[in-house]
Design a protein that fits this description.
Layout lengths: L1 H63 L14 E3 L2 E3 L1 H18 L1 H5 L1 H36 L3 H8 L17
Antiparallel strand pairs: 1-2
Helix pairs in contact: 1-2, 1-4, 1-5
């Protein structure tokens, strides 16, 4: 009789572990995909930000015409300045500082329709990026919280679900 109880208990524990593992996998997998999707959306928006900043530099450069302008080109990849990696966020911020300085020196630039449209697009994109970062970090918080909960903590490493970091826009680098 004791052997039967022990076997039944072991089978019950095995079923509980199997059911828990399936539930954990099915709960955490969509959260991980949501985090990956949010990160990919940020990458797309950052590429748009790079393109807009470069377009604004081109417009500003037309107004500088006769002056020699140090032209900052924002690359898809991280630049290597002085042996350190500079985030794309910093590159685009530097480019926008140059554009603002050019607009202050050349009032006609501020009146240019292309410049105005690009600045409006840039402003909307910055707001959109902020929302995307918040969405990513919210997804990351939900994912990490579930990952650290019981019984998920028993299975997540087995399934390869690593913790994800929160994103800081000023430290963004392309995934490539």
């Amino acid at each position: 009789m004791e052997a039967f109880i022990i076997v039944a208990l072991m089978i019950g524990i095995g079923w509980w572990l199997l059911a828990s593992a399936i539930r954990v996998y099915n709960s955490i997998n969509p959260l991980r995909h949501g985090t990956d999707e949010a990160e990919a959306n940020i990458e797309v928006s950052m590429q748009k930000r790079i393109n807009l900043a470069n377009n604004l530099l081109d417009v500003a450069e037309r107004y500088a015409g006769h002056e020699k302008m140090i032209h900052l080109r924002i690359a898809d990849q991280m630049s290597n300045i002085g042996g350190r990696r500079e985030p794309v966020y910093v590159q685009t911020k530097n480019a926008m500082t140059i554009v603002a300085a050019m607009a202050a020196r050349y009032p006609a630039l501020k009146a240019d329709q292309t410049y105005t449209r690009l600045m409006d697009d840039y402003s909307r994109l910055e707001s959109d990026l902020q929302v995307k970062y918040e969405q990513y970090n919210s997804n990351a918080r939900s994912y990490n919280a579930l990952r650290a909960s019981f019984p998920a903590i028993l299975f997540v490493d087995l399934f390869g679900f690593k913790p994800v970091k929160y994103l800081d826009p000023s430290m963004w680098h392309p995934r490539r």
